């Protein structure tokens, strides 16, 4: 007999399967264990070349990027030091010399 996982909400051991879903009879919570596992997995940030990025890395911009709401442009080849990774639309928070605080997408940078 296979062992079923405990309920992620109330930690009840009396869960049962209902098709693709798991159900907890105590708190009435229903979940898909495959989706639940994928959501709990840590996000991996990769640059344009597929290299894994971590906080504190130095990256280089791979194309000219217009700064929204300004006439400034971040030129191709600009080095960005000490990046911070965040879970948002723009994955990188950083400071660029001459421009200031910015947010960048990982698809527009490469790791140095």
TrEMBL record:
Residues 3-32 form the Protein YjdM N-terminal domain. It holds the Pfam family YjdM. InterPro entries: YjdM, YjdM_C, YjdM_N. Residues 46-111 form the Protein YjdM C-terminal domain. Transmembrane segments: none annotated. Belongs to the YjdM family. This is Alkylphosphonate utilization protein.
């Amino acid at each position: 007999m296979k062992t079923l996982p405990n309920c992620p909400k109330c930690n009840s051991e009396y869960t049962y399967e209902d098709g693709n879903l798991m159900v907890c009879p105590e708190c009435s919570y229903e979940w898909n264990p495959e989706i639940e596992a994928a959501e709990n997995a840590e996000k991996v940030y990769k640059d344009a070349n597929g290299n894994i990025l971590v906080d504190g890395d130095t990256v280089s911009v791979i194309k000219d990027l217009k700064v929204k709401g300004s006439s400034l442009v971040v030129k191709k080849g600009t080095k960005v030091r000490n990046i911070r990774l965040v879970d948002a639309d723009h994955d990188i928070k950083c400071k660029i010399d001459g421009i200031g605080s910015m947010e960048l997408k990982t698809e527009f940078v490469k790791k140095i």
